[in-house]
Amino acid sequence: MWKRKHKHDEDDARVRPSSRLALFQKKAGADFTAQKKLAIMGAMLLLILSLFLTIAALKNDVQTQSVGPTQTALPMTLQVAARNAIVIDAKTGQVLGEKGADKQIGIASQSKMLTAYGILQGIKKKRFTWDSLVTITQQSDWSQKDTATFSHLEISAGQKIAVKELFVAMFTSSANDAALALADFAKEQNQTQQQALEGWAKDLKLTGSKWYNAAGQVNKDAFDYQVKNADPDAENTASVKQLAILAYQIIREDPNIRSYYEKRGLVYHPSANETKIKLTEGAKFDQEIKAKLSNSKNLIFEGLKTGSTPASGGALTGLIRDQSGHEFITVVSGAGRYTDQVQRYQNTIDVVNQVLDHYTPVTYQKGQAVTKNQFKNKNLAGGHQNLVIGQSRTFWLTKGQTAVGYQRPSRLQSTVTKKGATVLTVQPTLKAKFLPEVSAKEQTLQLVNQQTYRLGHWWQKIYHWLKFW
After folding, report:
1. Prediction pTM value
2. pLDDT band at 302 (very low <50, low <70, confident <90, very high)
3. pLDDT of residue 23
4. Which CATH number fits domain 74-359: 3.40.710.10, 3.40.1080.10, 1.10.10.10, 3.40.50.300?
5. Can you tell me which family this protein belongs to (predicted)?
6. For residues 324 and 11, what is the distance between their CA atoms, to the nearest angstrom?
């Protein structure tokens, strides 16, 4: 029995290695399955993480979205007796109405606005100041000429008058001698007056305009300033749009020009101990013209410059303010006979009335919160940034439209944190026409910080980013 039992034990011993292998293989298989599962789970987690980070990157990208309606407000066609006319917003340069606005026409004394532009550029470049003295030359001395035909001051060769006094005289009394003396003073030493005028016109891209003298006289009536190689009947020409461009630039450079029409007497000093007073165009308007006008909307005339020729008829470049404080630059030409003083003003009223009946002003006020003014910004401690309008801006829309949209980003990457600092500009979705001198930037809305913000720590930036900021 013992031997049999021993044999059985031997049989058991022979079975055990095989069982161990089976157990080992079973265990190895289980380990491999676990590793495979871990690998698959790891791959899935990596895929999910990659997808998460990809979505986060896309979500954090600065994207543009449209807020509010897209509007169209192209210039209306003005129905007015004047042959040529234009109306623009004096502050934004938006063109509101036109009639024959690009036709070249004689502009007479409105030419003095180009001389004004030359003076303003000289002051801007610090070549001289408002107090600089201008010597009246033999050429610019018109004291002996008929005042009924040629408007001028009582100044003579050799006298010295301040730039400011002559400048105001051009606008308030249309003084020819003042314009001629100023143009000579402002031009480069090696230039003729005509060359200086043409240079200033080129600066403003007044393509196609023609210039002979600073006063706007017909060539043969410019006396010592007659251009010898030109037709005696040649005259300065420009379009009403180009005159509007001139007026727009002058008002921007010299806002005080708004007060000139309030002057009832022009005071000037031909010499240190001499003071003279001359009736202004503003005074003549009040005394002889204002009561004859039909002005139901009570528009206010603030200037700028009259001018007329037998061929072009009565003309006026005006600065007009309505009862709501909106200002318009207007130009009318061919408004009645050139000797008529009333029609140019009445036609000016008529075109502004048409614009006010056709358009509605929509104004974004400085400090006003824009639609959806809270922007996401991962760079800030709080993750948000509130922006408001930085500069008041008015857009004219056709009647019935009460708002204009704009393009804005869905989130910011800005690190501008100071209160009132410009963070970005947005482009209104408005199809309109502006003067060519109005830059794209001037047609946009500036958005500034409503308050001062604090930049976030690195971990805050990561946190905001991972929240799909």
Report:
1. 0.84
2. very high
3. 63
4. 3.40.710.10
5. Belongs to the peptidase S11 family.
6. 116
